[in-house]
Amino acid sequence: MVPPLFVRPLTPDEHQAIRAGPRSPSAFTLRRCRILAASAEGLKPSQIAPRCGRPSQTARNALRAFAAEGTDCLREKSHRPASARPGIDDAGCERPRALLHRSPRDFGEPTSLWTPEPAAGAAFAEGLTARLVSGEAIRQALERLGVGWRRAEDWITSPGPSYLRKERA
After folding, report:
1. pLDDT by residue (tens digit) across 97-155?
2. Which residues are within 8 A (CB) of 20 and not within 5 positions of it... i.e. 6 or more apart?
């Protein structure tokens, strides 16, 4: 049988942070502080759960987080999954920018204008990204550099000598 989980002995700074927690505007911090204070009084997670109106697993999670992080566990972390990280980190944003100064025809594209999807494929083929990213990831990386991505415009021109004169009229 596994022994019950309790909070480790608190330092004076930790004790003060846990006592200040109920005055926090964050409900997450309030719950964590109540759980840690109850465990410091000697209550088991199964006894803490009815006090806080949460499952006993929530109390165990709070106690494990406190053991690993200390008072940093009192702040709520991001719920974003690790797999949702940007495909291109901040250090790697400059590499696709340099790629876009070359012609898409150098990479076997049938057009001379870059669009996000072929740019993403070319970045992966050149080894600039670790995995094949979406065109949106390329656009966001360029946006972080302050480079805007606009749709290419088609220009109609004529080699005729009177084309410019007619166009102005």
Report:
1. 778 888 888 888 888 888 888 888 888 888 888 888 888 888 888 888 787 776 656 66
2. 33
| Chain centroid offset of residue 37 CA | 32
**Report field, pTM of the whole predicted structure over 0.70:** no
Q: Confirm if 29 and 21 have CB atoms less than 8 A apart.
A: yes
DSSP 78: P
Cα dist from 168 to 134, 153, 156, 162, 165, whole Å: 42, 20, 14, 10, 5
Cα R_g (the chain), whole angstroms: 29
Distances (CA, A) of 99 to 49, 87, 144, 163: 56, 16, 16, 35
